[in-house]
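Record 1 of the preview.
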Amino acid sequence: MAIKRAAVIGGGSFGTVVANILADNNVSTVQYMRNREVADAINQDHCNPDYLPGVTLNDTLTATTDLEAAVADADVIFVSVPSKFVRQVVSSFAATLKPHQALVSTTKGIEPDRFLLMSQVLQELCPQNPVAVISGPNLAKEIAKRELAATVIASKNSELRRNLQESLSCSYFRVYASDDLYGVELGGALKNIYAIVSGFVAALGMGENTKAMIITRSLAEMSRFAEALGANPLTFLGLAGVGDLVVTCMSPLSRNYRVGYAIGSGQSLEESVDELGEVAEGVNTLRYVREKARELGIYMPLVMGAYEILFNAADPKQVAKGLMTGAFASDVEFALPKHEI
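->
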């Protein structure tokens, strides 16, 4: 069935962009948030002054601070809150859901205790409900200005994929499909680490060749890690992999890039996060991925180096130089037979 009613859980920039696109596409949409003032601004002034100042929202989009009311009649529920709150928020309404109601995660992060991605958290809490994820090079402030962008919807449920494509596609937002739920979501989580690394590199004034090397070796690490965890490495050649990696590693609109840039400019991790004023998922993701890579013996020199920079005050220049002295490896992951690498 076509999606007629939607709920978006979260009042941040990307959640608001998704809610606005749905409303533009004539989907009856309600956005839940805790902040009463922002909810009132959306209902009365059709704007989100905290996250998208100056952007006029669809006047049919409504906001509420009543979570149970927001999800009650929704055909699809978009979960767009920081990863550390996903389990808590979804647990609060999971028991009220009907089996036909779908859940879509827009959150790019990892739950640390068992290294669970957000789709796995949703599946665990709501085993009777279809689940999907959105990931891609989607800087919310650009999409809000209707600049051209594309994303990936991943789900094992082909009907849900098609319905989400129809509900979110518009003249400036193109939606592609994938059935590699784990790979698409893992790409969205991992790239945040490398955006921080790219921020270091930019702040230190390193050359364009260095930036290109960092981005391409980041892609190699991402696909190597994902393949070890059971994802399809070819997924990383698409929007959720190289597409998202490039935009977050090159744009000052990226929260994680800005954290890396601040640290490369001499600030501490605490100072850079405080200055940002928003969640930079890559900081926590770096901790979890480093631990998992060490546990599984996966070669990830950029992850290891970034960890030393953030948490042990290592010199970013020395980390970059370390790439030049590491073990020889193939250029493109999986292109050479394993015995030749």
